[in-house]
Amino acid sequence: MTALDVPAPTAAAEVLDLSPAPGRAPAGRMLLAQGRLELALLLRNGEQVLLALVIPALLLAVGSEVHVVDLAAGVRRVDAVTPGVLALAAMSIAFTGQAIATGFERRYGVLKRLGSTPLPRWGLLGGKTLAVLAVEALQLVVLGGLGLALGWHPHGDPLSVLALLVVGTAAFTALALLLAGTLRAEATLAAANLVWVLLLLAGGVVVPLSDYPSGAADAVRLLPLAALAEGLRDVLEHGRVVPWRDLLTLGAWAAGAGALAGRWFRWE
User: Start and end of every ABC-2 type transporter transmembrane domain (predicted)?
Assistant: First the structure.
């Protein structure tokens, strides 16, 4: 074949542009990709699954059947325990899990390396938030299903439950970033686990705050886990529409911890 026999380019070849086009992907695509990555990392981590699903499920199964303390007359144990366990599960993944994971990512330089990619910092935080919300949806299915199997009778407005969980998740995530961004990874690990245990014992998870001494109940209800647990209990057990007091308490924690995390969080 000579040079004169080379066929003329077709119409498809004329419109095909193979030139490089470097640039950042659309923001929505980056956010979803980072969210999928964070979710996969969470679900592959056995400790995170244990903390977010297995321990709350065991606590629900035992707490709804075993007589720990006397409850008020007419209160069914499973109806009182299930909202508290849902609140604990949300804190486990949004606070304890995120604090530990982010602390070690900072120590091993993962956050520093991600900072050199086109992914903006808000994209990293948004991806973590999407992963947490996805795990919380899974928690609602698993723990809610287990509660129903144990005889739980939920009431109330689903939108109020959603509002409490979203604001509570924002508060717990902000506290996790504040802890992980200011302490060393080992100190973050110890502090996050200590807070989890203390709030499990005294945060109104298994025992409603109505069974606490009056002065202690008012003080404990200012804690984010107790506010979320009591808010969910008011809606799911007593059928109240919006527990504004608990919602405002969680919003104050989210705003305060978010402002401090934005000021003091260190990426390296």
Answer: 85-260
Whole-number Å distance between alpha carbons of 260 and 256: 6
Stretches where the chain sits below pLDDT 50 are 1-4
Is the Cβ–Cβ distance between 194 and 176 less than 8 Å? no
How many whole angstroms separate alpha carbon 51 and alpha carbon 155? 27
Query: What's the pTM?
Result: 0.84
Q: Where are the domains of the chain?
A: 29-66+73-264
Q: Encode pLDDT of 99-120 as tens digits.
A: 999 989 888 888 888 877 887 7
Q: Are 49 and 141 spatial neighbours (Cβ–Cβ below 8 Å)?
A: no
Q: Please, what is the end-to-end C-alpha distance for the chain in angstroms? A: 62
